Amino acid sequence: MHIIIIGNGIAGSTAARYIRKNSDHEVTMISGESEYPFSRTALMYVYMGHMKFDHTKLYEDWFWAKNRINTVKAWVKNINTSDKSILLDNGQSLNYDKLIIATGSKSNKFGWPGQDLNGVQGMYHLQDLESMVAASQMGIKRAVIIGGGLIGIEMAEMFHSRHIHVTMLVREESFWNVVLPKEESSIINQHILANGIDLRLSEELLEIKGIDGKVSSIICKNSGEEIPCEFVGLTVGVSPNIDFIKDSGIATNRGIIANDYLETSAKDVFALGDCVELSAPNPGRRPIEAVWYTGRIMGKTGAQTICVEPTKYNPGIWFNSAKFFDIEYQVYGDIPAKTPENITSLYWQHPHENKAIRINYETASGAVTGFNLMGIRYRHAVCEKWIGDKTSIETVIENLSLANFDPEFFDQYEGAFVELYNEKTGKSLSLKSKRKLSKVEQFLFG
Ligand SMILES: Cc1cc2nc3c(=O)[nH]c(=O)nc-3n(C[C@H](O)[C@H](O)[C@H](O)COP(=O)(O)OP(=O)(O)OC[C@H]3O[C@@H](n4cnc5c(N)ncnc54)[C@H](O)[C@@H]3O)c2cc1C
């Protein structure tokens, strides 16, 4: 059996590895971006000089050939599901028995005047990194970044590391406040400003102006101000990268429609990762989730279904992590920007440092539903288990030492958190003393 995988990101490359683990099938993994898989989330560190591109590779180059995974660097132009073939941009045609589409995302553009000028781009693909490096070498005095999400702030940090002045236009009145609760969003606003970024909240892009095909300024929609700049970063979200399959007959909406088994509407064609739109996502989850860890789970699940037995995709609890300049952020479970009526949200913030802990729980039952961490890291497996088991807030609070990755600070932060809980509820809980994980806990929680 010949399995072709289009895309070598975390979803496609994980599928390739697990197909090899589970079977002896012939595997061909194709990407137009790079011959070998790399970590997209690490690209910013290449720009900032902390890493070379080779350091971002998921495995050494020899790994793929040694594991009999053919790698092809080419763009797939077309899929023909009737004769089970794909056409590459070099004119070559390949036949598959099973096809996996794992083509990821592309940066959004919303039809702004001037959006195709030189010096205007998103930050998603390796080629985006390369053009950012080239533009920086040509000299950028000021970069304007449109959009206040995770990629926008990374781009701001990238330019900041090269002493390039950055202006950021954020449509919302506070940074990423569609996702972050008010307090956390406010910490990030302050932190962005403290890093010298010219943050313009409640502001949007009207138009990009250019001279000789190259960006020269932008016009702000609300203030009407014209800001001279040599670079514009469009970081207003991503969407599934599926334009090339539009004529293939495979059902799509915003993404490629896939069922619980990650099967598409076409026989023997699967979709994995960012490009997937689930037809029936789990309650509380979105049909398209463009994050690293779900891509990895999908890769493993798809390989299991193709090689071993039909296996349903199970994303586990929601998890995301990011970095806002120096502030690490993690979320486990459900922390909506606005707390629903049936949920109590306990929030503690360090008086002087950029550190905060939020724990949400159902008011009636006490079951914890989510954790938001700023500047403090909690263990994934512990939080996942507590949320999955619907553990009561009081048990969680008394055992917070199990979650904290930085045990030396545990008394300081979690002690304050318990005091907060006691103040709010009139209880007198205390932390179980600081202790090391038992052998069993170490096995469970890593
Ligand atoms: C700057 C940045 C920072 C991020 N940070 C985080 C983070 O901190 N945490 C997190 O969870 N997620 C983060 N993400 C998102 C995460 O990187 C993606 O969710 C993940 O990489 C998607 O994996 P994927 O395998 O689905 O797709 P991709 O990684 O996009 O891989 C798809 C591959 O398919 C190739 N391809 C597409 N079309 C074709 C075609 N027609 N022919 C051939 N090849 C094709 C693409 O070029 C690409 O190489 C970040 C993303 C970016 C851009």
Q: What topology does this entry show?
A:
Elements: E1 2-6, H1 10-22, E2 26-31, H2 43-47, H3 62-66, E3 69-73, E4 76-80, E5 85-88, E6 93-95, E7 98-101, E8 105-107, E9 120-121, H4 126-138, E10 142-146, H5 150-161, E11 165-170, H6 182-194, E12 198-201, E13 205-211, E14 214-220, E15 226-228, E16 231-234, E17 238-240, E18 256-258, E19 269-271, E20 276-278, H7 292-307, E21 319-324, E22 327-333, E23 343-349, E24 356-362, E25 368-374, H8 380-388, H9 393-398, H10 410-425, H11 439-445
The structure holds flavin-adenine dinucleotide (FAD).
Flavin-adenine dinucleotide binds at residues 6-12, 30-33, 40-41, 43-44, 75-76, 102-105, 123-125, 150-151, 154, 241, 244, 273-274, 290-293, 295, 320-322.
Explain what the structure shows:
The chain is globular, with a radius of gyration of 24 Å. The model has no long low-confidence stretch (mean pLDDT 94). The protein has helices at residues 10-22, 43-47, 62-66, 126-138, 150-161, 182-194, 292-307, 380-388, 393-398, 410-425, 439-445; strands at residues 2-6, 26-31, 69-73, 76-80, 85-88, 93-95, 98-101, 105-107, 120-121, 142-146, 165-170, 198-201, 205-211, 214-220, 226-228, 231-234, 238-240, 256-258, 269-271, 276-278, 319-324, 327-333, 343-349, 356-362, 368-374. It has three domains: 2-106 and 239-307, FAD/NAD(P)-binding domain, CATH 3.50.50.60; 120-236, FAD/NAD(P)-binding domain (3-Layer(bba) Sandwich), CATH 3.50.50.60; 319-445, Enolase-like, domain 1 (2-Layer Sandwich). 26% of the residues lie in helices and 27% in strands. The two termini are 38 Å apart. Flavin-adenine dinucleotide (FAD) is lined by residues 6-12, 30-33, 40-41, 43-44, 75-76, 102-105, 123-125, 150-151, 154, 241, 244, 273-274, 290-293, 295, 320-322.
